[in-house]
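Collaborator request, handled under Task 6.
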Amino acid sequence: MIFRNLRGLIHCAIPFALVLLTACAWAADMQTVRIAPDQKGFVLHPSQVRYVPWGHNYASVDIMERLAKDPARVEREFAEMKAAGTTVARLHPEMPRILAGPDKADPHALGEIKKLLKIAENSGIYLKITGLACYTINDRMAWYDVMNEQDRWKTQAFYWETIARTCAESPAVFAYDLVNEPAAVGKPDDGWYMGRMGDVEFCQRLSLNPGKRNGEEIFRDWTKRMIAAIRKHDPTHLITMGMLPFPGAYKAAAEQLDFVSPHLYPKTGKVDDEINLLKQFDWGKPIVIGETFPLSCGVDDERDFLLKSRDFAHGWIGHWPDESPARLAEMKETGQATIHNAIWLSWVELFKEIGPQMTSGGSR
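Structure tokens returned to the collaborator:
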């Protein structure tokens, strides 16, 4: 599940001059990401230079609000991420902020998405855009949650048509991430959502009335429909899905995806178990670990997992803290850091430390 970012109140001020000096160069140099000819990773087109996704989930719950209220903060934090070696950011623009109705998009929200694309282009960081997020329980659309399955799928397809139409021309899009950690089937009493953490729920069910269909059929049909919606407007950018650590559940969906994106959090002393789980997602397509973090282990086990995973995975995405790394380091030095602060800082320091190994090709 998404590890929700801790709220920070103080942010390091990186001079905007740095962003402005490099913006034009990055925008001009960005190329489209494609699957490598050998299916073992990614290349930039047309140069054919190898591209390794190495980055973070960013502003998992409030990216649209952050863009609207403080775009300068987003620019600053993209610059911070870039300085740390980031090549990709996974974003979660929430559906209630994008749609004004079942077949109507909010023009202002689409303007914010375009602003985000420009920030990414200027920073040189590619975007993995996760769709259909209805994480914040109090913000959900009542009209959407009373729909039957087919009307809900129709609205979901409209969402993806809208996003693809808005993003198609930007070289900063690495991939469209169809939905975060879905389940194929639930019971009507279960409701559409699951994976609750406080006032958010990070996962959705695709059907509450499967009839005679099994989970594979539902995943296959739903994935085909969402991909078709995207391809109406964007024939180029890659498509994937954020997957829980249950490979058997997602193999049918993966048949149609450009690459596979499991979410894996190693546990203390059980790194090899997580590597064995990762191997089960090897379906002949590139693998990008869409979420990982020292959440259930220490930084040494996380390092071990990341380095060992290079034999099977082709990209990795952790989580970026809401506090700036500089502020976290200052808190540690002055004895103000909490355990949570220390965990976040340990991740950022690990990310910087092994970044060159992760993006250089490693042992693969």
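The cover message to the collaborator said: "Confidence is low (pLDDT under 50) at residues 3-26. Residues 339-359 form the longest helix (21 residues). Please let us know whether this matches your experimental observations."
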